Amino acid sequence: MKFVYVLTGWEGSAADSRVLRNAVTRNSGLKVPKGNYYLCDNGYPNAEGFLTPYKGVRYHLCEWLSRRPQTPQEYFNMKHSRARNVIECTFGLLKMRWEILRSPSWYPIQTHNQIIMACFLIHNYIRKEMAIDPIEQHLDDWLNKQATGEGQVNLDVIDSLDLSPEWNIWRDTLAQNIFTEWRNRV
Predict the structure, then answer these.
(1) φ and ψ at 61, to 5 degrees?
(2) Cα angle vertex 166, ends 84, 36, to 5°?
(3) Distance separating alpha carbons of residues 131 and 117, to the nearest angstrom
(4) How far is Cα 98 from Cα 185, in angstroms, rounded to an integer?
(5) CB–CB of 87/185 below 8 Å?
(6) Which residue in 125, 157, 162, 164 sits closest to 30, CA to CA?
(7) C-beta of residue 76 within 8 angstroms of C-beta of residue 175
(8) Around 55, how many Cα atoms within 13 Å sit in the side-chain half-sphere?
């Protein structure tokens, strides 16, 4: 997995939703094309483009060892957790590779931010040079075209972080559909 957006400079105590709101609303910020989404934990709002698990429903992978999901919300949370686990492992790999990311830095904040960005860029370079699966290659090709302007299209992107009943309904429908599909297979 490669990182597609990095925003440095925020204190670790800043609320996740505040940092995300800043990333989405800044001019050169995170651009999420409508119809696409990032998986987020419950520190973020369940808003268009940012899909969170259901609160108050089993979520962590270890909670699924003893019994199978019984509801669409449980099944959705189980799948969400498995997918997010890949993301968490990628951050773990990043921290394992560069010790400077595991401890406080005594460098000036601007230097520290540049070091963090360099670690992410080198991680992506290493991933680029390693053998990857065809789906990841397809995604990389699309991202490269976007970065160079090749095949550039004017995408309708998400530029705010607003809670909406429609997004909750969309998540409910997605949960019901994948649960029904899974139930029909077993």
Answers:
(1) -55, -40
(2) 40
(3) 23
(4) 43
(5) no
(6) 157
(7) yes
(8) 6
Provide the b/e sequence for 18-54 (b: ≥16 CB within 10 Å).
Answer: ebbbbbbeeeebbbbeeeebbbbeeebbbbbbbbbbb
Closest CA to 52 of 183, 179, 174: 174
Partners of 107 in the beta sheet? none
pTM of the model: 0.72
Contact partners, residue 101, CB within 8 Å, separation at least 6 = 94, 95, 116, 119
Tens of pLDDT, residue by residue over 27-77, are 889 999 888 999 998 888 899 999 999 999 988 878 877 888 899 999 999
DSSP-assigned letters across all residues of 116-142: HHHHHHHHHHHHHHS---HHHHHHHHH
How many C-beta atoms lie closer than 10 Å to residue 75's C-beta?
22
| pLDDT of 142 strictly over 80 | no
Q: Which residues touch 71 (CB under 8 Å, ≥6 apart)? A: 57, 179
Contact indicator for 45, 161 with CB cutoff of 8 Å: yes
In terms of C-beta distances under 8 Å and separation of at least 24 residues, what long-range contacts does 82-88 make, across chains too? 83/39, 84/39, 84/41, 85/61, 86/1, 87/1, 87/39
Long-range contacts of 84-91 (CB under 8 A, 24+ apart): 84/39, 84/41, 85/61, 86/1, 87/1, 87/39, 90/1, 90/3
Q: Tell me 61's DSSP state.
A: G
